[in-house]
Amino acid sequence: MLRYSAAVVVALLVGTPTFAQLDPEPKQPYQWRVVLSVKSHPLLTPDFRDRLKRDVLAALQPGLGNLGAVEVIDLTDLARDKWEPLWEQFDSKGFAALDAPRDLSGAKTHFLKVEYRDGKIHAESRQYDGFTGLSSPLVRTQSTRAPELVGRTAGLMLDRDFGLVGTVEAIPGKTDEVKVLVRGAGLGSAKDFVQAGDIFTVAAVRKTNRAAPVVLRTATGKIIPPPPGSVPLPGLTSTPRDFTLLKVTDVGADGALRCAVLTRYEKAMPTTGGIVGYRAMKLGTVKAAVAVRLVGSDGTVYKTASAVNVRASDTGFVAGTVVDAKDVCKFHAPTAQFRTDGPLSNVACITVARELSKAKQFPVPILSSDPITLPYDTNPETERRADFERAVLKAASDAADARLAQSVCFEAVADLIKKQKNADALARAKGGFDAADAYGKSLTDEVVRLREEAKTVQKAEGLDAILNRTEQNLVVLKVSNEQLGKHRDLIEAVVKRENDPTFDAKELQAEEINERIKSLLARGDVDEALAAYDQLFALLPGDAVVKRRKDELAAEWKVKDDAHQKARDYLLKTWPAVATIQDFEESTTRVRDAVAVCKRHGDKLTLRKLLTVFSTAIVKLNDLVAPLDPASEADRKLFKAAETAGREMAKIEEDLRAFVK
Q: Which residue, among 415, 416, 407, has the nearest Cα to 608 in the 3D structure?
């Protein structure tokens, strides 16, 4: 699929994070739930469903062994008010419901749909994995005339897509290799479930502001109550990373898999945009011949072999211009497909090239013998338009990321000052200022270039609005960096005085706290500022000015009425957790209403805090747009919805800045 954006963003101001922020859960058993949905029919009796449950459990549990427990649930046996939200969504939308983003629960849910028609019992299955947020790519299908064989047939079908999962860990100094730390590796050997050559698909994981709905269980499925006083883990959600696969090259005794990275992107797994790490799920790949169809961004299928050549290999992409004859796909005119001479194992590393055009690479898992459809514009003008659109969206994503990174820098500096590490705070502030200044200038030049190119390229509707929003973000970045520069100068003065033996340590500490309070209030972090005032008053007991300033802030922050409380909670707690494009589009009216309530009460503090939330929200919206496919009518509608939401958010943000000054 052609993606609207293949943004490769830099980790501005926040250094180069690794993938170590996620718990790989080596001791956590798998909770594999098979949910039966049996369509009513006289032959599919309660006795049939009971036997089906027993047969599926008997087919799956022995193979899973110590890694976890299998639970088979018949929806017919449960009152609807006992159904989980995912089950409800499946019942109303079918297998497509599994593709919607949701909080990670840790549980695997395999839906098995059974119905009788045309003299056969038909079974369909697809899995949603709650540890990675990924779904198995295919809906598996099987059919049989013998009712007694349905359970065994279904068990084999489900087992094929079990999907071992793990957490991705970077290897220092390596960009083309990573490790995958297998979940549950401490409970049993992973070698029974994975081998060299197997393929994993990847998802980027982000934190939400909700508590994680994780239920811990023993290997037999018994719930483990959390320890008294324990704090819930943060909520997590994920986004599939398209055209990025991991190919296992070695299976370690400790459950660590060494994997080669196969990707179409310059940077396979970026760590910006709020990403805290990556997780991966093994796919049920096969060995089969490969057939490739090329489809343009307008949905047109490429139907001639002239000027385009397609190569495919299961060993990796070949660098340079060397072409092995066995890798060349032959064009089959009746079906408009480029076909391999023989079968490939597990993965197809497909290269599509045209004269005078850079070759494009697509790693694709081989899941069946069905044709593989790839995005490729053979018309130079169409390709130029697609490249321009990607460049505009990349610039927008980079600008939003830069703003988010700068907010993180402010937080880090404030935290270092709080810990009385002023020299470290100064170094961080200097580095952040210099990086943002250089990057802002570079990105401004890129926007100027895009403005010029926009005059000569046929572009999609709405790109001018995206460029406008990018320029607005760059203006905000520049203004914020000026504030960071002033903050840097103040910290530098404090550090110099800190080294003066004649200077009063208590007075210096008071200055540090005052600077921290200013920084916190600039971001709307009122609760933290009030706590800092308590520290200042403890340092300077009886200081009437400090007490008055804290009382004034507390009075200003006090909720005025119930509507004000609801508006603040929505803006600062509920809205930051929106997870889909539809959520963004539907939420803009409510955001405006809540902002209006806060403005009516003169609540600049809440709205100042909301501005920092906008930085994260814009990045999240860009990340949701990135994997959309313009050849898909449904995705084009989502892009329009995202465009509308982005426009509204830009207007709201502009209004907020004018109000809080």
A: 407
Please state, in angstroms and rounded to a whole number, the distance separating the CA atoms of residues 513 and 356. 61
Same domain membership, residue 363 and residue 389:
no
Please give the structure tokens belonging to residue 561.
């009425």
**CB proximity list for 528: less than 8 A, separation 6 or greater:** 520
Amino acid in position 523: R
Summarize pLDDT for 33-43 with one digit per residue, the tens: 999 999 999 99
Q: Residue 3's closest CA among 636, 641, 630, 457?
A: 630
Q: How many CB atoms lie within 10 A of CB 401?
A: 28
Tell me, what's the pLDDT at 322? Answer: 63
In this prediction, residue 354 has a pLDDT band, given cuts at 50, 70 and 90, of confident
Give the SS3 label for residue 486: helix
Range of the domain at 395: 379-399+422-509
Q: Tell me what the mean pLDDT of segment 395-424 comes to.
A: 78
Give the C-alpha separation, 436 to 413, whole Å. Answer: 15
Contacts of residue 455, defined as CB under 8 A and 6 or more positions apart, other chains included, come to: none
Domain-ending residue, one of 480, 509, 538: 509
Residue 221's region, left for phi above 0, alpha for psi from -120 to 50, else beta, is left
Q: Are 422 and 38 in contact (CB under 8 A)?
A: no
Same domain, 451 and 501: yes
- Could you give the residue ranges of the DSSP H alpha helices within 544-580? 544-557, 562-569
- Res. 518: pLDDT tops 90: no
Residue scoring higher pLDDT (418 or 338):
338
Which of 35, 20, 136, 31 has its CA nearest to residue 88?
35
- Provide the token pair at 451: 């403005």
More confident residue, 286 or 508: 286
The DSSP 8-state label assigned to residue 75 in this structure reads G
pTM over cut 0.90: no
Return all residues near 502 (Cβ < 8 A) that are at least 6 apart: none
- For the chain, the C-alpha Rg in angstroms (whole number) is 28
The bridge status of strand 372-375 relative to strand 357-365 is unpaired
The answer on 383 and 504 residing in a single domain is: yes
The long-range contacts involving 211-215, CB below 8 angstroms and separated by at least 24 positions, are: 211/235, 212/103, 212/104, 212/236, 213/103, 213/105, 214/104, 214/105, 214/106, 215/31, 215/105, 215/106, 215/107
| Pairwise CA distance, residues 370 & 288, whole Å | 9
Provide, for the chain, the percentages of residues in helix, strand and coil under a 3-state DSSP scheme, each rounded to the nearest 5.
Answer: 45, 25, 30
Residue 57 in contact with residue 221, Cβ under 8 Å? no
Does the residue 446 lie in any domain?
Answer: yes
309 contact partners, CB below 8 Å, separation of at least 6: 328, 329, 352, 353, 354
* CA–CA distance, 379 with 616 (Å, rounded to integer): 37
